[in-house]
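Give me the fold.
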Amino acid sequence: MFKVVASDLDGTLLSPTHDLTELAVETLKQLHQKGVHVILATGRNHVDVSGIRARVGIDAHIITSNGALVENVSGQVIISHTIEEELVHDLLDVVLDDKEILTNAYRADEWFMSQDYPGVKQYFPNSDFTYKLFDESKTISTDSVYKIFYVSRNQEKLLQLEKQLLEKYGNRAYICFSSPLSLEVMSPHVSKGNALEQVVELLGHTMQDVIAFGDSMNDLEMLSRVGKGMIMENGQQRLKDQLPNNQIIGSHEHDAVIHHLREIFNIQ
């Protein structure tokens, strides 16, 4: 029996409206009561994820910004990797004048965006966490930046940007897609897999004791290293191609993670 459950949020544990269903909240509580460690592993900011954890009402470690910042069950930061300041400056400038691509940064407890985009609030239905615009000089302070990410409806542009960033900064950064419309950049030491392994060790377990769920390329390292890594039916084809031996379960639209957990852990 698995001792640890690790799950991505958007496209995985959360519904298409980016919220937890009542069944999900109840199931996570029942897992906690059974002594199973629940870990939320996401590209989201720790401020936002802390609110999701509070809503569930359980002691859970949270892996945020794809592993750049990790909090223990008490909200204490136990892992922190920021992007080197010189690189932050370059990454903020790379597509700043492209109106089709929104440049974003998670800096400490704040979220900055290059252009106003109210539609993004649909991703945070129960959270007050929101963005600030870059200042008039179109920049921000370059210290304490955990993640820079680029959002666009033009996926071809993001794929071109991924290639450009990998060629220029691939040895200085971890670059991945968290969805087809979001390309993300962190410190080279960062991945959900690395962070999860450290947390699991602190809990006294190994990665073989973990069952994990994900849907995107930022879940690759996590899903490839655990005892059982499950890919969502709605997951990125690129992820499925990279992990051809991993089981594919149903869609987040139908609470597939929760139904799978209830079956595995015999929750009635």
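The chain has two domains: 4-80+190-264, 85-186.
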